Amino acid sequence: MSGSGQGSDSTHRTIERVARESYGRLVAYLSSQTRDVASAEDALSNALVAALKSWPRDGVPQNPEAWLLTTARRSFIDHVRHQQVAAASEPTLQLLREEHEVALSTEFPDDRLKLLFVCAHPAIDPAMHTPLMLQTVLGLDAARIAGAFLVSPKTMGQRLVRAKTKIRDGGIQFEVPQEHELPQRLDAVLEAIYAAFGIAWDDMAGVDQVGRDLAEEAIWLARVLLHLMPAEAEVRGLLALMLHCEARRAARRGPDGRYVPLSEQDSQQWSSPLIEEAESHLAQASSRGRTGRFQLEAAIQSAHAERARSGRTEWVAIMLFYQQLVRISPTLGTQTGYAAAAAEAKGPEAGLALLDGIDPDDVSAYQPYWAVRAHLLQRLGRTSEAVGAFDRAIGLTEDPAVREFLLQKRANL
Amino acid sequence: MQFALLIYESPEAFAARKSDGTDPYTGAWRAYHKSLVESGSYVGGDPLEAPDTGTTVRLKEGKRRVQDGPFADTKEQLGGFIIMELPSLDVALDWAARCPAASAGVVEVRPLAPAAKHRIT
Fold first, then answer.
1. Which chain A residues are within 8 Å of B90, Cβ to Cβ?
2. Phi-psi bin for A388: left (phi > 0), alpha (psi -120 to 50), beta?
3. B103 and A396 in contact by Cβ < 8 A?
4. Domain residues for B18?
5. Do A403 and B28 touch (CB under 8 A)?
6. What CATH number did the domain enclosing B77 receive?
7. Residues on chain B touching A393 (C-beta within 8 angstroms)
8. What percentage of chain B exceeds 70 in pLDDT?
9. Is the pLDDT of residue A85 over 60?
10. Predicted ipTM?
11. Which of A100, A265, A358, B18 has its CA 20 to 30 A from that of B90?
12. Structural domain that includes position A395
């Protein structure tokens, strides 16, 4: 292998690719044996540093993943020795030693499913489920995760460490849950992946800020999960939902960067390959006959996507999907979405009545509620109330493009 | 606990204060302030006059040194502050991100230090 800049560039790209594709598999495999996620990550990052040093010099090994695993394992053993851990961890060491050479030639099991269930374990703070997944399965650093979740990087780092200590010391098992607890446990995994995607509701200025730059990572996680659990309808529902929203990414901004709400989007700009993929997952999910929250949300997005073909939006169908959704998942997002859909299907009074049914204390900082409320009051000609609601929506908006859009609407009242 | 949102603004943002009040930046601030107050977490706060109205005073070897202008020579300058009563830093960061100055300047979030105040009162 040549030592030229180009050769080393392509080696670096190989390392990046292997790191991206193998990170979660390696962390999952190493930590499922020891339950020590933090040490597994440290060992793997040492192995990646070693790869950066030796691969450009010696060439990329035949099986890069096995090379990383062997090197990480060695680093892990050194670490344990260094810590002079008591005899209690001797079995772990023995296990590692025994399997040491095997990994070079054979495939090792994909334990990422266990790792995903560990990250979303009920004993772990639900707010940390998503950050843990992003770090342990995808290798994202704490600073990037902190940015996406709007938490101080130091705090996020500490919370991640605390969560990993809990996994190690709290007796959390690396296993796929039993049949009887699977639906609930799987729900937590799906919720965590969806939280990374971060679009709670995609209409009238309802852009949820949380983690929106993690959309691709979330889709990646959902694909990993689907690969590991191909028979679960809700996994396909979640993937279909995210693909539908992702299909509209380009249409959500005008050429000048201005925000374009769903109802005004040019459907020709939607990505038809993504829509088709979403539709195929949704169809496979519903053929299994078990409806769930994510399939309903995907069905709503599918109904919106229908506009690209028919030129119109079936609001009654969307309202009925929301009605079912509110029954099984009465979040602020679904309640607000239901109100907006009812307003389109039955008139603004119907929508406003549903908004009035939500506890005002819950919505004092919930932007989409105020955006929909302003829109409905405007349609009813209740201008001075609409101004007030627009102000609340504008004041709660983080995205400057959305803020600009709402300021414009308020000015045109 | 109480947090201060320290609002650092660009020269353009300071210039917007001279407008008739119909510009988007002022409109965004009006709405933001309303949301702060109606959230029930607002304790107080005020804008500051432009940085060139500042005067710094220090004593060096017993001699008074007085200078016109702000203390720090940076592009964004302290333009005001907001005090809020909030359950956590996470929530304070949410309010900082919504602040119109966050996309045109910088908002620094600092906890107030009641213990330090207690030592001197």
1. 150-151, 155
2. alpha
3. no
4. 2-120
5. yes
6. 3.30.70.1060
7. 31
8. 100
9. no
10. 0.86
11. A358
12. 366-413
